[in-house]
Amino acid sequence: MNTTIKEAEEDIKIKLHNKIRIEKIKQFVDRYYGFDINRNTRKDEYIKARTMYYFLSRSYTSEPLSEIGALLNKDHSTVLHSLANNHEFYVKHNSVYKGGLNVFSDYAIRYVNMLGTDEELKIQSTALKESVLYYENTKLKQELSELKTEHELLLQSNKTSSVLGDIVNKIPENKLPIVVERLNAMVKML
Fold first, then answer.
1. Which domain holds residue 8?
2. What 3 state SS string does the chain have?
3. Nearest CA to 59 among 18, 90, 30?
4. Which end of the chain is flanked by fewer CB atoms within 10 Å, N or C?
5. How confident is the model at residue 1 (pLDDT cuts 50, 70, 90)?
6. What is the pLDDT of residue 135?
7. If you average pLDDT over residues 133-150, what whole number do you get?
8. Is 121 left (phi over 0), alpha (psi -120 to 50) or beta?
9. Domain count, the chain
């Protein structure tokens, strides 16, 4: 299933490639985070936002790293370092960052759709929307499958708890400390 999501993401990137400029990507990231990413600071939220800008610019345009960085007064090595060291970490551990990447494709489709009204562009826009919907549907199916598995584990855990609960409820109150002591000893032996 991951392959299908990957294919849908690539399809979207290919269809949008070079139809959106880095200035528009910066504008999106500025709005998404609510501040100007061009500010010269090392605060974590700015680093995340700039990493998102670098990644989206690299993915959706053919601009060289030097041009991508120049818009933020950074050099190509800063862009390269950020992509190599930050992007994967933020994708795995930061839901705001990951959400922004997902929101961008819809933003880009709407932006590209506004650029022109010719028939070919409308067809491309429809195909892009279908790709995004397919991607989101596949992702939701995967999440649903994971939730079902988690639910089954919780049900099994609940059954075990209820069996133990039934046994514990049958123990007379004055004998409970002895049972707890013996259970602790048994657990230590395992």
1. 2-145
2. CHHHHHHHHHHHHHHHCCCCCHHHHHHHHHHHHCCCCCCCCCCHHHHHHHHHHHHHHHHHCCCCHHHHHHCCCCCHHHHHHHHHHCHHHHHHHCHHHHHHHHHHHHHHHHHHHHHCCCHHHHHHHHHHHHHHHHHHHHHHHHHHHHHHHHHHHHHHHHHHHHHHHHHHHHCCHHHHHHHHHHHHHHHHHC
3. 18
4. C
5. very low
6. 66
7. 79
8. alpha
9. 1
The owner of tokens 């491309």 is: 124
Q: Please check whether residue 32 lies inside any domain of the structure.
A: yes
One-letter amino acid for residue 176 of the chain:
L
Side chain identity at 8, as an amino acid letter? Answer: A
When the pLDDT of each residue in the chain is averaged and rounded to a whole number, the result is 82
101 located within any domain: yes
The backbone torsions φ and ψ at residue 157, rounded to the nearest 5 degrees and listed phi first, read: -65, -40
49 vs 66: CA distance, rounded Å: 18
CB 35 within 8 A of CB 49: yes
Is 187 part of a structural domain of the chain?
Answer: no
Would 184 be classed as within a structural domain? no
